[in-house]
Amino acid sequence: TKKAAAEEVSNAAIKAWSAALKEARARPVVLVSGASGAKGSVVNGTYELVDDSLVDGEEPPAFQMREFPDSWLYLATDLRWWISSSKRKEHRQPSGWAHSGEIAAGTLPQKAIGWKVIQAGGKFEEQFVRLQAKTEREAQDEDMYAWRYAVERLRNRTMLRVTGMKGEGGLYVNGVFEVRVDSDDDRNPPKFQNRDQVDVWMSYNATDKRWWLVRVRTQEGKKPEAWAHSREVEKGMLPHEAYEWRTPSKSGKWKNLALQLSAQSPAEIEEAIAAAWRKAFAEIQSRPLVNITLARGENAPLINGSYELSSTGDVARPPVFRKQGDEDTWLYLARGGTWWVSSTDCKDLQQAVGWARSGHTDPGILPTGARGWKVLSCGSTWEDQPLQIETASPNEIITIAAGAWRRAFSEMRSMTVLEISGASGAACNINGAYELRPRYMEAGNLIYQHRVHEGLWLYRGKDRRWWISDAKGKDCFDASGWACSDPSEVGVMPMAVGGWKVLQEGRNRWEQLWEAQALTLEAKSLEDVDAASAAAWVAAIKTLDCTPFINIEGATGDD
Questions:
Q1: What DSSP assignment string belongs to 28-80?
Q2: Which helix (H) or strand (E) covers residue 541, if one does?
Q3: Handedness of CA 43, 48, 49, 53 (dihedral sign)
Q4: In sequence order, which ranges of 58-161 are alpha helices (DSSP H)?
Q5: Nearest Cα to 396, choosing from 404, 388, 407?
Q6: Contact 420, 410 (CB under 8 A)
Q7: H/E element, 124
Q8: DSSP letters for 375-398
């Protein structure tokens, strides 16, 4: 009869659950791992059999999570194992954060299949959720030594290489991290420290079960800055084994991040970096000049200019470039993987300090390939600026400069003479007419010679300033002489540049005093200059019409 059949099914279920309870008591701990998504942290964990009120076979067993006591693993009325809250567990509700497929009576959770985990939006996603039944001792051993086993898995690959972070966070997140194991207790999770940015750490948070990338600045009295975190992971899972990394957006919300992490040995890291720079060095040797333009603001004169390859010895390291005409300005790769324009002292220490910087770059990326350039302006404010950075050969630099001067000069047409006036003091003899010498233009230079004092020359020096100096200074483009302007770009004519200073006599022959003076530079044609000169002489001669004799007296000596 139906009643007899029902009783037979009931008896079979009681018998099955009685056997299952006996098995659960033998291995009362269930380890759950592998769940991901919004509720992964309340699904993964250690569940313990609650045996206080169980009578053999009367009902399926239930397991309570040790880490979060409000999470339970129980069999619901739909014959599926569910992980949910205490309230739902009391009523065996088929609702919660994860569930198995439908099971037969007596099937414990570790034997169930078809696990699904709830995701954002309320949909369930099938995932490989792993459940293991353990004795208390086995669970303790696995829990206690999970991190020791994790470190052992690293073996000699004790470094993590991190790439993929964009923007400012790339300064701190990208790079090479070295493992740091707790020497007092290897049961604690290891930490990873950024090799270049020593205040940046990757550490495991036991509360939310995530790996975090944090910049710790306790010495500066500032709160730690969190730049990225992984999804929830089970104990013993290392950062490069985690996935679904996220980073904070400008609105404060966390967004997905395509972060790549790989465990490598120190030798593998160094060889990969060296190979990248050897390739970059081979590329830059044929075009060893780096031209930077389009920088704006108060530091633009320090940044814009041509930088010459300076390091030619160790091709397995990042190249270094020195600014032409300025021995104290360099373009170099600082610690943390960012290109900087800065001083000699900062360059020698590879400090991330200076007047311009790129975003984070991977090994082998030259300044021309770097992105995210910023320029320091208004004290300590960094401003995004699309700097134009190009490489060139020496011949190309000359050609570019020659073209710039030809274009600038073409606008002046026949104005081949510069009339300088306004200089006073010891160097007042620099006043007068300077005539363009075209033969220098094809070599990429614009040079003028004084029409009267032929030993005076006007040229653009190595420091990008216009100088009035002697023939030796002109030949070497020395930053020395009797007068100089503010720095200027190639193609900017001297009469368009300000900030003129004139050398004055000091208290002794070694002391140099520079005085700012408002020099006037006016472009004129040779015909106009000659006509003005002739007119001046005509006027002078007219003054002699009434007194055609000049009397000289006062000379002494043999002559």
A1: -EEEEE---STTHHHHSEEEEE--SS--TTTS---EEESSSTTEEEEE-TTSE
A2: helix 526-542
A3: negative
A4: 86-90, 136-154
A5: 404
A6: no
A7: strand 124-126
A8: EEETTTEEEE---EEEEE-HHHHH
Q: What is the pLDDT of residues 219-264, one digit of tens each?
A: 555 677 888 898 878 778 888 877 788 888 878 788 888 888 888 8
Among 273, 270, 202, CA closest to 242: 202
CA–CA distance, 5 with 509 (Å, rounded to integer): 122
Model confidence pLDDT, tens digit, residues 121-172: 889 999 888 899 999 888 877 777 778 878 887 777 888 888 888 777 777 7
Euclidean distance between CA atoms 343 and 248, whole angstroms: 34
Residues 177 and 195: their CA atoms lie apart, in Å, by 6
Which structure tokens are listed for 55? 């009578």
User: Which 8-state DSSP code applies to residue 189?
Assistant: P
Burial class for 439, CB neighbours closer than 10 Å (0-12, 13-18, 19+): exposed
Work out the number of other CB atoms within 10 angstroms of the CB of residue 94. 15
Q: Which two tokens stand for residue 273?
A: 């970096």
Measured between alpha carbons, how far is 376 from 383 in angstroms, rounded to an integer? 6
DSSP label at 328? T
CA angle 20, 23, 26 (to 5 degrees): 150
End-to-end CA distance of the chain: 154
Calpha distance 356→52 (Å, rounded): 68
C-alpha 538/C-alpha 545 separation (Å) is 11
Q: How many beta carbons lie within 10 A of that of residue 75, not counting itself? A: 24
Q: CA-to-CA distance for 157 and 115, rounded, in angstroms?
A: 34
